[in-house]
Amino acid sequence: MGDDEQLNAKKIALSATFATLYAAAVIVLAVISFSIIQLRIADCLIPLSAVFGWPAIFGVTIGCFIGNAYAPTGWADYFFGPLANFIAGFLIFKLRQRPLVGCILGAAVVGLIVGGYLWMFLPVPELFGIERLYPWLISVISIFVSGLITQGVLGYSLLKTFRRPNIIGALKAYGLETYAEEK
Question: Domain spanning 3-173: which CATH class is it, in words?
Answer without folding.
Answer: mainly alpha
